[in-house]
Amino acid sequence: MTYVVSPPAMPGVPVAGGGTFPVRRIYCVGRNYVEHAIEMGHTGREPPFFFLKPADSILPVAEGEVGEMAYPSLTKSLHHEVELVVAIGQGGRDIPVDQAMAHVWGYAVGLDMTRRDLQNEMKKQGRPWDIGKGFDQAAPIGALKPAAQCQVGADTRIALRVNGEPRQGSVICKLIWSLPEVISHLSAAWELQPGDLIYSGTPEGVAAVQAGDLLEAEVDGLPRLAVRIV
Length: 230
Ligand code: MN
What we know:
CATH architecture: Alpha-Beta Complex
CATH topology: Fumarylacetoacetate hydrolase, domain 2
Shape: globular
Strand content: 25-35%
CATH superfamily: Fumarylacetoacetase-like, C-terminal domain
Bound molecules: manganese (II) ion
Number of domains: 1
Number of strands: 18
Radius of gyration: 17 Å
């Protein structure tokens, strides 16, 4: 095949212990923790829903490093959303809930960065969220850990600090839709493939960050994700 422009590089996430996970798609779950749904003006009882970010919007950060995210254009309200990210290693469609976890390759800590003012304006106008959610570097992600090497369970904690101050904190059992349910529902709408990432939703406490801020995102048992806004 003769490409008529240089083909773009395949986006990838570093794996703890070596190797790179190639990224095909980034699926995100909206409003998947009750307290976050409430802080966004909902009852917390609506079913979650999905949106996507471009694969090359990931900002991969290796373990022990501090990634640099440029404060994005067009916004005055850049929000953090710390999320557990699931990496799909085995694809499928209409995956039953009780088989869903066999499709998981590994886990990482991610940030679903959001231009909240633009997202809110699009919501108000009934327009797509892409400009609020799918901008360059909108999906920082830490090193992936293979599922066989970690235990992500009901009592696994998820947390975010900004400049050392706690901002978000919860436990995975507070997900409205569990990870197997998310995978099952996603696979009914799209055929999942190896290389897909799923940002599983954020707990309460989302807020704005400024240039210079240091974001430290943690999920028990996974490599920490550190990002500075520049
Ligand atoms: Mn989110």
